[in-house]
Amino acid sequence: MIKQTMRPRPKGRDAYRYFSSFATRWRDNDQYGHMNNAVYYELFDSAVNKFLIDSGILALAGDETLFLVASSGCDYFTDVAYPDDVEVGIAIRRIGSSSITYDIGLFLAAADTTAATGFFVHVNVASDDQRPCPIDSATREKCAALVVSADD
Domain 13-146, what fold? Predict the structure, then answer.
């Protein structure tokens, strides 16, 4: 029997709990006239880290632990190009003992559905040896507001 997988579909704004706005730049476009795929990942990374900074989880210097990207992916639905303004929504799908899985949606500024959706898995590691370590209770508490169920 052939296993049939569902094709990814755009998501609405209600699938995300935290939003950041970004302006695209001239250099974001590639030779085909749309935003290069690497820029989507830069925006995903910026949005997740903005949440971590805004919530006080990431202090940028002197932390005993830090989050490293272990896995990521993206599905594209609508072209994005300079001079589009975009908004990146994030939600948390799962908080494990040492990892957080984010759902990410990139929206054209006035759009109700995503131009691209992605995921980002962060692993919490010790700053000195970069070995995985448990996520502390304060971080879990701050992330709880972004958690969505599989049905969302």
Answer: Thiol Ester Dehydrase; Chain A (3.10.129)
